[in-house]
Amino acid sequence: xxxxxxxxxxxxxxxxxxxxxxxxxxxxxxxxxxxxxxxxxxxxxxxxxxxxxxxxxxxxxxxxxxxxxxxxxxxxxxxxxxxxxxxxxxxxxxxxxxxxxxxxxxxxxxxxxxxxxxxxxxxxxxxxxxxxxxxxxxxxxxxxxxxxxxxxxxxxxxxxxxxxxxxxxxxxxxxxxxxxxxxxxxxxxxxxxxxxxxxxxxxxxxxxxxxxxxxxxxxxxxxxxxxxxxxxxxxxxxxxxxxxxxxxxxxxxxxxxxxxxxxxxxxxxxxxxxxxxxxxxxxxxxxxxxxxxxxxxxxxxxxxxxxxxxxxxxxxxxxxxxxxxxxxxxxxxxxxxxxxxxxxxxxxxxxxxxxxxxxxxxxxxxxxxxxxxxxxxxxxxxxxxxxxxxxxxxxxxxxxxxxxxxxxx
Length: 409
Ligand code: C2E
Ligand code: CA
Ligand code: CA
Description:
By secondary structure, the protein is an alpha/beta fold. Helices cover 43% and strands 24% of the residues. It has helices at residues 83-91, 95-117, 127-134, 136-156, 194-204, 207-228, 247-251, 255-265, 279-284, 286-298, 317-320, 330-336, 340-355, 368-376, 393-402, and strands spanning 5-9, 14-16, 24-30, 33-39, 42-49, 54-55, 69-72, 76-82, 160-169, 174-186, 190-192, 240-244, 273-278, 302-308, 325-328, 359-362, 381-382. The strands form 3 sheets. It has an 8-stranded mixed β-barrel, surrounded by 7 helices. Strands 1-8-3-6 form a 4-stranded antiparallel β-sheet. Helix 2 packs antiparallel against helix 3 and helix 4 (136-156) crosses helix 5. The chain is elongated, with a radius of gyration of 29 Å. Bound molecules: ligand C2E and calcium ion (2 copies). One calcium ion binds at residues 179, 244, 276, 306.
């Protein structure tokens, strides 16, 4: 659905008036208009426009007053493009396109202001420049663009790494697997958190390349961990590496095909890889996601829902989607001791998982009290700083080799 409509203006009538608010642009289909500006009480014609021209386009990006008056020189037919319609189109556009649109329009306004005011004194900021400089969304877009470019280069320079956080089978006190967590080892800025660069990569689409890379590296790590796992440390289930995926991974291309291609390429068994996705992914792309996940599951890959309970209240997707494991959000674990309502929630989530035949992982275990409690509540697996922080590959190998169940009593 669009808000585009047609309008006619008789010769001599005004399409828009300088200084007035405007919330639409016009594309001239037939006829001629003149563009007029007011200078010191005088009206100056600064140009004429004919079929195919767009006028009033600045109203598409902001709600500042019209900078010119436009009058029909002949009877005109125009197409009206509303700001709401434009905003909808822009919403689905690439962030770089959005940023360029904003910059171009701001520069254009600036140029108009300069031509109107003659040249401003040196160092003077025009109103348009102030708008451009104070525009935080522009700054954010620009820094996102910089991060994204640097991230692209980082991939080529091997600055990206995976760390592995052990996941412990808390009932048996064995190592169940590891979660792969991405790190960016920047030569000057040091270690950059995924909390900074993952959202940028998600926004730009680069995430699909990062995910592909992470899966390949995780496959090799999983093979190595499996080969290292001494019998006494092994639990009843295959040791796994859990890899995080984002919405874009599912919406761009053939997710299942890419996963199986990478597993084959790295000669890795599906049982050794778990796919970790967030609740929001299921909400945002239900059909495509469901199909892809069903194929993955049929192929032998396990699916975990990350940060469970943190986002959406709808539980209906739980039985509609093929899910093996729920990972209780860290915030519940953190507040469980001391907050009866958090405790009730944790118990309810564990009960829910049980009833649906799902496994449950508690994240963010930082103290022995939390570990004890979560074990008593019947949780299957857990991870957290109390057991281990995320480790570089070599340290994760050593963790496996040297594992001794910590004293819990
Ligand atoms: P997440 O998937 O929920 O990962 C768990 C985060 O909690 C990790 O943060 C981990 O270091 C941290 N954590 C683990 N145990 C504890 C604990 O006991 N206490 C506290 N306070 N924190 C703990 P990290 O590595 O900074 O990752 C942050 C988020 O970035 C991840 O949250 C995930 O959403 C995203 N991320 C990381 N790597 C990837 C990746 O390869 N792909 C995608 N798509 N996202 C990733
Ligand atoms: Ca995760
Ligand atoms: Ca999580």
